[in-house]
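Replying to the earlier thread about multi-chain prediction with a worked example.

Input:
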Amino acid sequence: MVKFLKPNKAVIVLQGRYAGRKAVIVRSFDDGTRDRAYGHCLVAGIKKYPSKVIRKDSTKKAARKSRVKCFVKIINYRHLMPTRYTLDVDLKDVVTGDCLQSKDKKVSASRETKKRFEERFKTGKNKWFFTKLRF
Amino acid sequence: MESGKYTLGYKTVLKSFRNWKGKLIIIAKCCPPHRKSEIECYSMLAKVGVHHYNGNNNVDLGTSSGKYFRVCCLIIIHPATAFGTVLHVISTSVLGITPILHDINGTRDPRPEPLPDPYTY
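Result:
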């Protein structure tokens, strides 16, 4: 069997506050850790998707519409749906194991992933990842 | 233990996917379509074969596994030795016979029946 829950895999969160949001696996712990005895992974996902930018929009409005709000979370494998997509944004240095220890670390990690996601969105690649999943 | 390893049921099938274990999935014909497509999606990502069992429904799949309950989907983790019972299931379901799988049940026949010729693994 090929492992598919690997870093850079795009997944959809199925449960919790972020249900229905797309996320990318940054680090996976197949066998769990001492605190979490189940397979889980650290994901960085999109809390608020960028809106659709139309031609009529001024640059200021387009910049406002292209904002991406992010979240960083540890999620059980059970609460994820893997997809065939990948997102190769380098988040390993930003989203680390200890960034969820305190609130300000979490906020700074989210801010940094927000920057990287917005960069990636503006290049126009990985369109699937930045479109809202309709359900 | 020489006999093959398998688990029955949707929850254990998904669990096996997440543990990277398993060689073949067998899905009953009457499996609900959403569940069937979810299993097929996972198996496509994991590059695991899916076989749609040729019996009428999940009752038949349960019976072929030697159980007295219905089985909608099952995953084979380790097939038994070479003349595998896995192949036996597939070949006989293709032939339209529902076998009682002693091997899959865990009690191993000392001399397994030879498979019909056209079916090679």
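Confidence is low (pLDDT under 50) at residues 91-112 of chain B.

Feel free to reuse this layout for your own posts.
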